[in-house]
Write a structure and sequence with these properties.
Strand content: 15-25%
Helix content: 25-40%
Structural class: alpha+beta
Shape: globular
Radius of gyration: 20 Å
Number of strands: 16
Order of helices and strands: EEEEHEHEHEEEHHHEEHEHEHEHHHEE
Distance between the termini: 26 Å
């Protein structure tokens, strides 16, 4: 059994033996109040999970555990979300399910939890993933059962609260702090944002995302002993596969947009991640499970690490976590052929690039969250799947996927292409 690492200054992590990402799938990412705006996060998760099992050539009855994530509870059955995702994906009633939450790192956390359960001998396979409907984020009235003073009804926008760390500053302000630290200009941020968008448009043009996006239609999810779940898209929506946040952009138009988080700041609506709805799922399994079924995994899960830092510089979370996961794996950045760092904000990515001295030519080569959007709990899963697929296409041996995490954290994972 592999031994984990923990250090109060660096963080914690562990290398893994023979744990694999078999395959996976995701929904298209719908823009805020877009095509997926009324589809519950549970149903988005079911869509992605059914497709992930099919892509992996694994039956639901062969799954041992369900590890699923959701950040903003935005439907009535959110309390039961991981259980319902599993049941309506054909996983037996006898198989347990659990919800995990590490904000933007939650999708990674499901894979990490599954790998650790397998290392402990508590599972041979797991359905992992995350789902988010940010459009449906409620406007909440806390304390309503306690009554109200006359004329004093207080409501909270839970979508805004997801973006605002009350212990420090809003998420976008952490990117502005990074921009100030590293002298990043609005022009540099816009140039990187346009690169992300152009790369995503090119990936769409060559059909890269077709192999990871499941086409969506109105449907009814059913299962033995379960109540039917009706999923309704628009009347004219058929085989919906569009990442709606991607749109061609010109630098001159981007330059005209005002700063959002700070006076004369660098972050605008054009160079920040899109608020979107979507889900992503993967199948994780150990060597015995993979070999006994003749499966061909996309990648091996090499190691993971999670670190924490000053919440005011949350945007730099990938820096310590990437350094630590490389240390744990006994590797250096020279060993890494591809990198996916979630693009919460352009200045956030650029700060990480500067501190780690990254080669932009191998980072986010199919675009990132500025183009595709950032459905919080689904992002880590999407990054892991996209990275693993691109490693196969390019014949790259090792890749890293990482994200900054609200509150001042970061998670990073190393994946190996066994065919390289």
């Amino acid at each position: 059994m592999m031994k984990g690492f923990h250090d109060k200054e660096k963080g914690f992590g562990i290398p893994y033996d023979d744990i694999y990402l078999v395959n996976g799938a995701r929904t298209p990412f719908g823009r805020l109040s877009g095509t997926l705006g009324l589809v519950s996060p549970t149903d988005l998760g079911i869509y992605a999970s059914r497709a992930a099992l099919e892509k992996s050539d694994v039956k639901g009855e062969d799954i041992d555990q369900v590890m699923y994530a959701n950040i903003g509870q935005s439907s009535g059955d959110s309390y039961f979300l991981p259980r319902h995702v599993g049941l309506y994906s054909g996983i037996p009633m006898s198989v347990p399910a659990v919800m995990l939450q590490r904000i933007c790192g939650s999708g990674f956390e499901t894979i990490i939890a599954a790998a650790e359960q397998m290392t402990l001998g508590k599972a041979a396979s797991a359905l992992c993933g995350g789902t988010e409907n940010m459009t449906l984020s409620p406007t909440a009235s806390f304390g309503n059962r306690m009554g109200y003073a006359l004329g004093r009804l207080n409501f909270v926008d839970m979508l805004w609260e997801a973006l605002n760390d009350t212990a420090a500053v809003p998420m976008g302000c952490t990117a502005e702090n990074v921009a100030n630290k590293h002298g990043i200009t609005k022009e540099e941020a816009n140039e990187f944002a346009k690169l992300s968008i152009d790369r995503a448009l090119a990936a769409v043009e060559r059909g890269f995302f077709k192999d990871e996006i499941v086409p969506m239609n109105s449907t009814v999810f059913e299962g033995e002993g379960l109540k039917p779940r009706k999923v309704r898209l628009g009347k004219r929506v058929q085989d919906f596969v569009t990442d709606e946040n991607i749109r061609p952009s010109k630098l001159e138009d981007m330059a005209k947009l005002p700063s959002v988080f700070a006076k004369d700041g660098v972050q605008t609506a054009a160079n920040s991640s899109g608020i979107v709805d979507g889900a992503a799922s993967v199948v994780i399994a150990n060597k015995e499970f993979v070999d006994s079924r003749g499966l061909k995994p996309l990648s091996r899960v090499v190691a993971s690490a999670t670190s924490a830092l000053d919440p005011n510089f949350m945007a730099l979370g990938p820096v310590p976590s990437i350094r630590l996961v490389l240390e744990i794996a006994g590797m250096s950045l020279d060993d890494i052929g591809l990198i996916e760092i979630n693009e919460a904000f352009a200045a956030q990515y650029l700060g990480c690039e500067k501190e780690l001295e990254l080669d932009r030519n191998i980072c986010n080569v199919n675009g990132g969250a500025i183009a595709l959007g950032h459905p919080l709990a689904a992002t880590g899963t999407r990054l892991s799947l996209t990275l693993s697929r691109e490693m196969q296409i390019r014949g790259v041996k090792y890749g890293i996927a990482a994200a900054c995490i609200g509150g001042g954290q970061g998670t990073a994972m190393i994946f190996e292409n066994m065919n390289a």
